Amino acid sequence: MAAPDLLDPKTATHNTKPRLSFSTKSITLTPREESEVVATVMKRKTVTAIFLLIVLYLVMGAAVFRSLEQPHESAQRLAILTQKLDFLAKHSCVNHSQLEDLVKQVVSAIRSGVNPAGTLTNPSSLWDLSSAFFFAGTVITTIGFGNISPHTEGGRIFCIVYALLGIPLFGFLLAGVGDQLGTIFAKIIARVEKMFAHWDISQTKIRVISTLLFVLFGCLLFVALPAAIFQHIEGWSALESLYFVVITLTTIGFGDFVAGGSEIEYLDYYKPVVWFWILVGLAYFAAILSMIGDWLRVISRRTKEEVGEIRAHAAEWTANVSAELKETRRRVSVEIYDKFQRAASIKRKLSSELGFSPTPELALSRRTVSANHSEEREKSDKEAGLPGLASQLTRNCGLFMNGLDLERGDMAVVEHIK
Amino acid sequence: MNPLGRSWLLLSGFVLFYVIYLLFGGLVFSSLERPVEEQLRRDVDALKRRFLNQSCVSAAALEHFVGQVLAANRYGVAVYPNASNWDLTSAMFFANTLVTTVGYGHTTPLSDAGKLFSVAYAVLGVPFTMLVLTACVQRLMRPLVAAPLRLLRRCGLDARPAAGVHFLALLALVLLCLFAAPAAVFGVVEGGWSFLDGFYFCFISLCTIGLGDLVPAAKPGQRFKQLYQVAVMVYLFVGLMMMYLLLRTFHKMADLHGLTAYLQLPRCEESDHDDDREPIVENGQSAATHKRPSYNSISER
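The joint structure predicted for all components is written out below.
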């Protein structure tokens, strides 16, 4: 089953995942403790038993469907025949409304699953045993072609109950088949790896090559070969056969093309062989689709990683930038402290010259660090003049100097680190 | 952003991409199929006109005509006027049935290019859809399963009965909200459907069988057809999610009650990391037995 076996407990058993693959679990034998070995590969006997059970289930379902649907079908067929005879009896110029009537009747007949065209003398029922078996198969594999479908109330109710039980059952079978497929594949891989062991090729390369071979070989066996056979027997084009194969094996199952659904004379064993092919092909496709799902997940994870890397780079960059900004701020505040100190010394000089009381030590907030006094700056500050400097200081220092208020003259005592 | 927020963002990204993928598929199908559909419809019209011109109807002509109608209907071409199967919402609906593998078949691609595209679209879209569904279900597990279980345990129930009660409650909820209610709605909106028909449709769709004998929004002259189709698509997605959730809950409960061990099936793995798989290489294997690599392990290296 590719996706849809949602009623299938097997799908839920594999990890947390999308449960397309049944065969992966078989290969990972993970005994948790010595006492509790959970065998994840189904024994061959179990698989055969389940297979026989399923065949029995299908036969039973086919018999029930046939008994429910065939009477209804014959009644419909009779009604349509009568209608057509009436129409023929008229055989005059048809008017528009009569024609539309005819069309509507034909369409509703088709919707009821009856083919109103063709030779009515040779009624091939849509519900003979082999077709009913096929229908039951399409139900429990969840393919659901729909070229045949139940129309009676009883048939529909039975279909629901049948599917409820049959889908999980088929899921188990599919799991078993998938396990067997996976085991075969793993054995082949192991042998190939042993062969190439002394050639010293990396394990990854071997696995990649073996996956490609698996995909190729499986496509050949389960897709290309059946497509060619269908092309020959059913008379479809190559594209139509391929389309049918893919639509069937992914369990989408439109029903526009159905192997064994046309008016051709089929060999007796044709339909059972088709059903068997569907079974094995489903397991193969489940593996392929699960692989694609894995790759998508890996891609998404790698994308996440790359996005994470990008984000890490961005974080680094912003950290660098903010560090630089801090550095710049620090330097600027140091310069301002510088100028402030010089202004203070100038003020002291002036006040001592003019005879004022000495003002308390001008100090700066803790945040500013080393002050770099240079003779040239002192000179330039003197030239700039004190009032301008003071106003500039008040403007610039508001941010950087806590507790400093030039108007009031309160100063916070601070360390002066050279 | 904390990990939880990030995972929600990723999930919504997933869902958004899923919607975009559907839109894209709808557009491509629409552009591929409509010309062919128009041509087929014109052929049917010409045939009808020729039929009308005949003064007398012969059996052969009638059969031929009926066969033509049959062929047209089999391909899903609406025989009634003013109804296209490939306008945007219908094509999206078709794409949705493709990637969820329901596959009704009431509309199918007619052109060769359409068929080829369907194949490619499905092979990529089906695993992707399952990925999205699983991711959504994992997010849902916490509020819908873990939290009620904790609540039940706090009320004094043991692990096993709590799991059983919770599963039954979830089952009843799903039956009511996803089967009974939509069935009633379909019975009202779709003229000819009974309640059983609606229920049957819901079941067949949510199991992804999709027979296609009953398809909503397929009647000619359906009012609000686009809105209806979008609503059905949403219903399908939510329904599939809930079915999967139900399945996982059942499996966990079976684990607790020892059913899975009894039937020798693998346990339901408990993992909140949606990106990690089990290690492929097992530690318990001796050197004598071959390591059994999984072809899926390639993605891990």
